[in-house]
Amino acid sequence: MTLQSTSGNEPILDVQGIKKYFPVTGPLGRLGGIKGQVKAVNDVSFKVFKGETYGLVGESGSGKSTTGRTAMNLIKPTAGKVFYKNKNIFDLSKKELRPVRKELQMVFQDPFSSLNPRIRVGDTLEEPLVIHSLLANKNERRERVFEILDKVGMQAEHYYRFPHEFSGGQRQRLGLARALISNPEIIICDEPVSALDVSIQSQVINLLQQLQDEFQLSYLFITHDISVVRHISDRIGVMYLGKIVEEAPTESLFETPLHPYTQALFSAVPGKHRAQKRERIVLKGEIPSPLNPPTGCMFHTRCPFAKDICRTEIPQKREMAPNHYVACHLYE
Ligand SMILES: Nc1ncnc2c1ncn2[C@@H]1O[C@H](COP(=O)(O)OP(=O)(O)OP(=O)(O)O)[C@@H](O)[C@H]1O
Ligand SMILES: [Mg+2]
């Protein structure tokens, strides 16, 4: 893990005010008209710097994957901008996007499980080299795949095998190999270890960190797992119902979680977090539906400290300590 200063340094990825609303239709589909909108991402901003790991953490349905997919330009946002090296990726032509696609890669939970079982791993790994016209010669491509297989702790002979012949951990290494082969600047990792056993999780996380150091990679690391996000991230954004409610350097966030939601999230996890030494905060009720999100602060319906203002006004983020931001009326 390379700790980056967040000032005097241009971000690799700069996400500015993205919103993603999904239309909801009735049983007749679009014929019946739009019944409402799922506000999956609702005004999210953050930056990822060179060599840094930015963790996005939050409960299921908080909008983490939608944020990651928007930052990858896999889905178009309802509003907002995503700057990759100072260019808004949504303004780029197809041709201008091509080099960005090469440098901006994504790894999912189990990327190799959904592959065509009859295509050899080597051919899948070579694909980006063909798509981006990086190496024209088949032998050179194969050599490059051997090299990358070695980087992720696999062997050259694995080139000739089929996806089902690998364990979950090995498949995740192959997923990383495929992301790495085109020399990316940043990899968006969406729950890359969530499907793995804990011991295998730490191997893959160690590998991610090793590769980060070797190639000066930046990661946007998406997970619902507090221990994983704590271990790997330099800075963390905590998401709740489509918004980042708190953002801080990892140490500051775990030492002094400020948002009642962050405190509740941390206090529910066994471990030696400082939040544990406080009283355990049990949240009332379920996470509300993003189809009909609460007014004011998204968290007020479950917050033990909610005041009148929380029901009516959206809290703005404030810097409470260096690079430690919280959006909560309790701190105004
Ligand atoms: N294509 C879609 N159409 C409609 N609603 C969607 C779509 N994709 C996501 N959503 C909704 O948007 C919200 C956010 O989903 P998202 O997958 O981004 O959450 P997440 O934080 O990644 O959750 P998880 O931890 O379960 O992966 C959810 O309510 C989800 O149902
Ligand atoms: Mg997700």
Automatic annotation (TrEMBL):
Record-linked SMART domains: AAA
ABC transporter domain location: 13-266
Listed InterPro entries: AAA+_ATPase (IPR003593), ABC_transp_ATP-bind (IPR050319), ABC_transporter-like_ATP-bd (IPR003439), ABC_transporter-like_CS (IPR017871), Oligopep_ABC_C (IPR013563), P-loop_NTPase (IPR027417)
MF GO annotations: ATP binding; ATP hydrolysis activity
Gene3D superfamilies reported in the protein's UniProt record: P-loop containing nucleotide triphosphate hydrolases (3.40.50.300)
CDD domains referenced in this protein's UniProt entry, alphabetically: ABC_NikE_OppD_transporters
Keywords: ATP-binding, Nucleotide-binding, Transport
Biological-process GO terms, alphabetical: peptide transport; transmembrane transport
NCBIfam families the record matches: oligo_HPY (TIGR01727), PRK11308.1 (NF008453)
Family named by the database record: Belongs to the ABC transporter superfamily.
Protein name: Dipeptide ABC transporter ATP-binding protein
Protein's organism: Bacillus timonensis
Lineage per the UniProt record: Bacteria, Bacillati, Bacillota, Bacilli, Bacillales
